[in-house]
Structure formats: structure tokens, C-alpha cells
Amino acid sequence: MHLTIVTRNLNKLLDMKSMKLLDHYAQFNPSPLSVKQFMEFGKTATEAESFSFLSKEIPVRLSNIMKEINLLPGNLLQMPSILILQDWYAKSFRDLSIFESRAPNPDTLEEFCLTLKTVQTRHTNVVQTMAQGVLELKESHSVDNQTDMAIQYFLDRFYMSRISIRTLMNQHVLLFEQDADRNSRRIGIIDPACKVRSVIMEAFTNAAFLCEEYYSQAPDIQIKGQLKVINENGKKIPLSLVYPPPHLYHIMFELFKNSMRATVENHKISELPPVEVLIAKGDHDVSIRISDQGGGIPRHITDHLFHYLFSTAPRPSMTPNKAPLAGYGYGLPLSRLYARYFHGDLILNSYDGYGTDAVVYLKTQTQEATELLPIFNKTSTRQYKSAVPTADWTDPSFCVNRGPNPRGSGRNRNSQDTEQNQTKRKLSNFGE
């Protein structure tokens, strides 16, 4: 029954030619880029060269995740929000796959850039729409533990795919659109001198504003550690790293919202203790620790904090009148994905009765900061049956529960997977 539903849905969304293209692109693994490659490519590549790479790479990444969507439980695939989301992905795949066979002349390049912007706009609400689809399933069906684990596993991979595709598209548009800022120090989305303290303070200020909207008060901030470093000329300069500021901002904003809410609710009468931030930079990592005195989290709950749709706050309306401070249960798991995207990480240490430390690790060396991408192959399909994460990312040593293993072997690039026919037998693992 499940296979019939999936096939019928795909046939409605894609014509036969597009279906064959989808199968073709899904045979290839995505090609992960390092921050160093993003920088070098942004400085030296022409628009035609960027077009030649992206016109193949984005369809590969889209087809990989579209194939994996179809491994989800059949009843989830039939939720209204998921049908809408699949339609967006099908349209975007059709819109972009036509460019592979076209020459990079000026008209094609202009059309490609406009198409990328159209796709970006179409996918603006993907996170909320997928979240709504999972809510629709849980409100209308009983979800067993194995199905829930499969959904959690999928959401990590789905949202990481989204981060990677949007990064590629943003990079091209920012570099090559007609009104692109040619004098910006940034290389597309990446700032070669992203000032860590400045981004932290921007995120804190905006989170504090939101906190005051809800609670009429917000804790202060105390920053310590390596706020400045000595450059090659012997001068002290603000600590920085090569990184996309929007990604760091997203992580910090979510962590500050959590710390502020906990602090205010744990100190309703007494004076609010500050949120403390420690910044450190070593040869391999920039580490940022956010410490609060918000009462901490019981150990039996901490395992669920990176579980999508789990939140210690009441869930707000999906269409709130003002921006919610908390409650959707997406802040922490998405922030961890942003940290892991370039092989960093986000971990929590909570002290029940006192407070919580959130530690963000970001790669200092640009050649080590390589995209961590999900790939669709026989290993990924097994997860929807066993729910035990193994090496089905472009870093084969990566395990979802452990992060990257520095002793692991190299990455798998654009190799064809000859065992995708095993996918069919996985489709019957979920009943209606």
C-alpha cells in the first residue's frame, strides 16, 4: 500500500522525463565543499563556472532528499502539509534540472540566477511546513517509538539538506546577481573576518528584546575569555574566524532565548543573574560557552532536548501574532545542525537545580570546515528499519549521536550507488 501511494504521488508531481532525471541524479552523492573552497571559488570563479557546478550539484542534493522523503511512513506522506512540501520540491527540481543541458550564455546565466531566487522564495516556509506535517500526523494517528525515531532521524537529514542547498544558492546569488555588492568584504555568505563577539551581542540584544516583550525583563550578559587576539603585526584585534555570520547568529539567538526564558522563570522575584559567555580560540576550534542559572534540566529530560517537537515551554500557535520565544521544539536541534554543517558541534551540560551550559564548537581551520551532508544510499534506507545511525553522511565516520570521528577515513564524492534497488524493500516497513 505504501509503495502504491508513493508512486502515485510522484507521478502526479513529476512527468516521466522528470522522474527519469530524478532517478539519474539520485545515483550520485553530493560533493561537500569546505569553507576554504567556498572562499577560493568565490574569489576566482566566474559566473559561468559557478553555474556549471550548481546546475548539476543542486539537482543531486534535491534528488537525494526527495528520494528519502519517500521512505517516510505512508500516513505521514499523506498529511496535507507534506503534500504541499513535496509539491514545492518537485517544482524546484523541474525548474533547476532544465539548466544542465544549457550553455552558460548571458541569457541563461540571468535566468538561472532568477530561478534560484524563485526557489528560495518558494522554500521560505519549509521548516514550519514540515513541522506542521509531523504535528498533523501525531494529532491524527498513533505514532509508535520506531516510527518516531525514523522521523527524528529523517528530520536531521532533511533540514541539513535544506541548509546546504540554501547556502549554495545564497552564495551564487550574492556573488552574481545584477545588483550584487562588489565592494563587500564578504565572499558571498561567508565573512573572512566574522567578529565573534559582535555576532554574539547582536543575537543577545534581539533575544533580550523578545524576552522583555514576554516577561517585561531580561537578564544581562557577561562576556569573558579571548575577546581579542594578536595579529601578525603585533596588534590586538577582535577575535574572528572565517564563517557565515547568519549561521552563527541563528545558533546564538536560539541559545540566548532558551537561557533567558529559564533564567526569568527561575528567578521570578529575585534579581536576575546574568547570562555568562566564554569565548576561546585554539588551533582547531573556536569554542563559545553560554552559561545560565536557569535552574537546569533533569537528566531524564536532557536526552529529549534535541528531539524535534519536544519543548519544555507550552507550544504556541503555528501562526502567532508575535514572534514566539519558545515552544516549537525546533530551536536546539536546528541550531545543532547549523553548528555541525561545517563540522562543528553543539552540546549541552545541565546541572539540575542550578543551570545549563551550552557549548558551541566551530572549526578554526577553513580546510577542516567541510559540509556535512546526508546521502541517499543503502545505509540511509536501513535507518528507517533499524533506527541505528551509521555512516550515511558524506563523512563516513560520522554518527548522528557522536558527531564526526577525527580518525575516520575520507569523504565519498559523486560515486554511484549500485544498491539503491534495496530501497523498495524498505517501503513496506511502515504500515498505514
Number of strands: 9
**What form results from the Cα inertia axes?**
globular
**CATH architecture of the largest domain, please?**
Up-down Bundle
What low-confidence regions span 5 or more consecutive residues with pLDDT below 50?
A: 1-8, 318-327, 406-432
- Beginning-to-end CA distance, first to last residue: 8 Å
Specify the structural class. Answer: alpha+beta
Biggest beta sheet summary: 5 strands, mixed
- Looking at CATH, the homologous superfamily of the largest domain is Alpha-ketoacid/pyruvate dehydrogenase kinase, N-terminal domain
In percent terms, what proportion of residues is strand?
5-15%
**CATH classification, class level of the largest domain:** Mainly Alpha
Strand order of the largest sheet: 2-6-7-9-8
Number of domain units: 2
Question: SSE string, helix = H, strand = E?
Answer: HHHHHHHHHEHEEEEHEEHHEEHH
**What is the mean predicted local confidence, pLDDT?**
85
**Rg of Cα set:** 22 Å
| Count of helical stretches | 15
The third-level CATH topology of the largest domain is Butyryl-CoA Dehydrogenase, subunit A, domain 3
Helical content band:
40-55%
Overview of the molecule:
- By secondary structure, the chain is α+β, with helices and mostly antiparallel strands.
- The protein has helices at 2-13, 16-25, 35-44, 47-69, 74-77, 80-97, 106-122, 126-140, 145-176, 196-215, 245-266, 299-302, 331-341, 378-386, 423-426, and strands at 191-195, 221-225, 228-230, 236-238, 240-243, 275-281, 285-292, 345-351, 355-363.
- The strands form 3 sheets. Strands 2-6-7-9-8 form a 5-stranded mixed β-sheet, with helices on one face. The protein has a two-stranded antiparallel sheet with strand order 1-5. The chain has a two-stranded antiparallel sheet with strand order 3-4.
- Strand 3 and strand 4 form a beta hairpin.
- The longest helix has 32 residues, at 145-176.
- The N and C termini lie close together (8 Å).
- The model is unreliable at 1-8, 318-327 and 406-432 (pLDDT under 50).
